[in-house]
């Protein structure tokens, strides 16, 4: 039978079916990391996700003989389009069986939806904003994914190119060996930067103390630092409050570095988290009955891997060695916690400044991913 495309309604039941399709598609795959199902469902609910203040979206699922065989989200970020005078739509959360008819039907539905709203180009995989997953895996299919990245089968990029989608940008990811001590060069630079610019690394007893003083400034710094990066959509105050409430509370203080000047003005921040990949696999993306236990164990107990989620440095302090302060503060904590490797997560391949920060570490480029573009 031919492929049937059905729009996904706004009910939790339909959204859950959309979210859980990926889990069934990768069943038994040791590299796929399922998302937290309840969190992913909320992402697609306008009443929950503040990104809907300036975005519109439609989800689609593909069926053959009544069985789900694919899914896709079509998104328009009106804030980016208006500020850049663009007519771009995004596709994201795309999953499909290795079937050209399925892929063509899914992409066709997303493109038709975007075209009907005046869009002339389609890019992706991307989400509503940079806080969502982006980039289709093109290299590193045998590597364990992270909570912040997409995993997909090797046949995905083959189908994208078959449809005429071409590379827009690539991201690279590194697996970095945690050194036995802070590299001497970084320690020396950190000491110089601390004295020269009067900077300090701040300590907090509770996450709440950090959130109360620096929650909003932290995300404003991210907006300022990332504003010129590919596809970045500045976070609104409502989004910032949402992320503070939902995600800061699960972080470990010894995996966060906050740098301020003598007046406690925020200068830089590095946020990392013990890897949740294996914990999410064990729980199947569910909190109950035992998923919460695996996540808590990964966060608080023994863990070999730490995920480097983000680094942001105020523009006036960039290229002045502030990153060395971050390393000097966090590496001793990583050693104490027993982390053997750090995952860099996504870095644009042409961002030389970011690439250079790893030059004194034992590292391996082990994943590469791509955003595609096509006129519609």
Describe this structure in words.
The protein is 36% helix and 26% strand. With 376 residues, the chain is α+β, with helices and mostly antiparallel strands. Strands 1, 2, 3, 4, 5, 6, 7, 8, 9, 10, 11, 12, 13 and 14 form a 14-stranded mixed β-sheet that branches. Helix 9 (277-283) runs antiparallel to helix 10 (291-300). It is globular.
Indicate the radius of gyration in whole angstroms: 21 Å
Major sheet: size, sense and barrel closure?
14 strands, mixed
Integer average pLDDT: 96
Distance between the termini: 27 Å
Strand content: 25-35%
State the helicity in percent bands.
25-40%
Q: Give me the oligomer status.
A: single chain
| Uncertain stretches of 5 or more adjacent residues | none
Q: Indicate the overall shape.
A: globular
SSE string, helices as H and strands as E = EHHEEHEHEEHEHEHHEEHHEHEEHE
Tally the beta strands. Answer: 14
**Please, how many helices?**
12
* Content-based structural category: alpha+beta
What topology emerges from the helices and strands here?
Blueprint (H helix, E strand, L loop, with lengths): L3 E4 L4 H14 L11 H7 L11 E10 L2 E11 H7 L3 E9 L3 H17 L4 E4 L11 E4 L15 H8 L3 E12 L6 H14 L2 E3 L4 H20 L10 H11 L8 E5 L5 E9 L2 H7 L7 H10 L4 E9 L8 H16 L3 E3 L3 E2 L3 H5 L6 E13 L1
Parallel strand pairs: 4-5, 11-12
Antiparallel strand pairs: 1-2, 2-3, 3-4, 5-14, 6-14, 7-12, 7-13, 7-14, 8-9, 9-10, 10-11
Helix pairs in contact: 1-2, 6-11, 7-8, 9-10
